[in-house]
Automatic annotation (TrEMBL):
Coiled coil: none annotated. It comes from the Bacteria. The keyword Nucleotide-binding applies. The keyword ATP-binding applies. Residues 120-303 form the ATP-grasp domain. GO terms for molecular function: ATP binding; metal ion binding. InterPro entries: ATP-grasp, ATP-grasp_PylC-type, NAD(P)-bd_dom_sf. Keywords: ATP-binding, Nucleotide-binding. This is ATP-grasp domain-containing protein. It comes from Mesorhizobium huakuii. Pfam families: ATP-grasp_3 (PF02655).
Length: 385
């Protein structure tokens, strides 16, 4: 296995770069693939080859053919998704006889956990506590909860980065929502407490890596850009119970909340990599745990992790608005730049080219930077356009 070839998809993401560095450092040949022309991970020394793919959301058939051709031509044994392209890959592995293994559960389970309502039903069936969550598929469903709007959170069943979330809205604000069977929403009881994010790797239901962290700064309401490691036994028990109960193999992440009494509840699940991966920096131990059924690996970095350009773009304006400049300055001094890696400086410079490509797409499509960063790989359920 030491010299085997691994394909990592979603090369645009810092987590894909980090995973490539870990596996390359443990002796794997790492190929990266994605649809942008110049993603950051393609510049890394850990990347033996970067292959540009068609955008799966808009050219699904061409994407499937290209992935299969790449897997066969390069003798790839394992494919590890890192972003929402995992759902398109899940469909390919379901519908084609692929010669490589996909480091993910089957498509049915992937879709189930990505669905914010089905995930809650599954979690509850495993004996775990969940916040009350109601499925909205019509105006009548919405009308049934309208009077309780101030105690609920409304969000699309298929969404990411907290996009379109309505947090305890007024009844009038609900007029903007039009749930349907193709575009369902959930109404979830608002839970107050401390947010915890979880990144995990599991093999056949056994936890192999777990990083629990919180995001001190975010890009708008959604994706975190500054990460601090935390420990929480109740959060660990939740993740362990979930991966054991589903027999999970692959990467998985959760948005959790810890109530004042210490109880931890799940809010949603993403069956892919998230930024907790950056707290693992030992290539050999991480790779043995992830790919060779070795012992569980613990985070080996405790320093906060951040992407400094994102902090200047999003964190500084937030600090100025809240008049918390000293806190921002202290946070910047305390954190490591998560793109830094010994002997591999190129990705840090490449982030500007990658950002320019995303900014160009945002301008052309008249959408935000964040929307442009994932538009071509988003998966919005089996009935998406």
């Amino acid at each position: 296995m030491a010299n085997s070839t691994v394909l990592i998809t979603g090369a645009r993401a810092p987590v894909a770069l980090h995973l490539a560095r870990l596996l390359h450092g443990a002796g794997r040949r790492v190929i990266l693939a994605d649809s942008p022309a110049r993603p950051i991970a393609a510049a890394s020394k850990s990347c033996a080859l970067y292959h540009r793919l068609p955008p799966p959301r808009f050219a699904g058939r061409a994407y499937g053919k290209a992935v299969e051709a790449l897997v066969r031509s390069e003798g790839i044994e394992l494919v590890i998704p890192t972003c929402e392209e995992i759902f398109y890959l899940g469909q390919i592995w379901r519908d084609r006889a692929m010669p490589a293994r996909l480091f993910a559960p089957d498509m049915a389970l992937l879709a189930q956990v990505h669905d914010k309502h089905a995930f809650m039903q599954l979690t509850e069936s495993l004996g775990l506590a969940v916040p009350e969550t109601m499925l909205l598929q019509s105006k009548d469903d919405l009308q049934a909860v309208r009077s309780r709007s101030r105690e609920l959170v409304f969000k699309p069943v298929w969404s990411r980065f907290a996009s379109h979330v309505l947090l305890r809205p007024s009844q009038d604000e609900l007029d903007a929502i039009e749930p349907s069977p193709a575009m369902p929403w959930v109404a979830q009881r608002f839970v107050s407490g401390d947010e915890i994010s979880a990144y995990a790797v599991a093999l056949n239901g056994k936890l192999k890596a777990l990083g629990l962290y919180r995001s001190l700064y975010r890009a708008g309401k959604g994706a975190g850009i500054y990460f601090e490691l935390v420990e929480d036994p109740a959060a660990r028990r939740l993740v362990e119970t979930f991966v054991a109960g589903t027999g999970w193999t692959g990467q998985i992440s959760f948005d959790l909340i810890r109530e004042r009494d210490g109880r931890v509840l799940p809010l949603e699940c993403n069956p892919r990599a998230v930024s907790g991966l950056h707290f693992f920096r030992d290539p050999r131990r991480f790779t043995e745990a992830m790919l060779e059924d070795g012992r569980e690996v613990k985070p080996d970095v405790s320093t906060p992790q951040t992407v400094r350009p994102a902090m200047w773009i999003y964190g500084l304006p937030a600090a100025l608005r809240s008049l918390r400049i000293a806190r921002f300055s202290q946070a910047m001094r305390a954190a490591d730049e998560l793109l830094d890696w010994p002997g591999d400086p190129a990705p840090k410079q490449a982030q500007w080219r990658a950002l320019a490509e995303i900014a160009g797409a945002a301008l052309r499509q008249h959408i935000s930077l964040q929307q442009a960063s994932t538009r071509d790989i988003e998966w919005n359920g089996p009935l998406q356009d």
